[in-house]
Amino acid sequence: MRVYNRARNICVFSMACLILLCGSCRRVDDVVYADFATFDREGWDPVCVIPFFPWPMDSVLSPADRFDLILTLRYSPADASSVIPLEITEEDENGEIETRQVSVRLRDKDGKPLGHKSVYLYEVSDTLRRNFALTDGYLVGITSLSPLENTRGLRNIGLSLSLHGNRRPSLFPPLFSKQ
Fold this sequence. Notes:
Jelly Rolls, 5-stranded antiparallel β-sheet, extended
């Protein structure tokens, strides 16, 4: 009877270790970088350029990995404008600069806030760049093209970097429009 219990305990312990080992090596989330800037109640001063240096924090990733760059805005629906125009500048290790403008819609045609709601804030996200390789010295600068008073409801802006190919299908239409 004791031998049976001992063998069963060893088997249960071995299975638990195997499950733990397999589970700990599995990538649960495909986000490898995220950084957010915070704004006070006054809004975002249009002369302020917010720099981001997206680089994966996981040392297991290889230079051959491909990424998606995702822009996220969090805002208070009580103060927010309908649209916030942004200028996004990307610079690589060779100093080559690419600048583009996007407009982030925060409200629909009826004035209803867009995005996912948490307790007090809404969050909108969209992919800026898909399936690209990172280079050393990659930098993204984001500037508001809207007056200070139009960005009062904005609380955070951030970039995240996720591994390409692990995306779930989008349930919502694109929130950002290129200009």
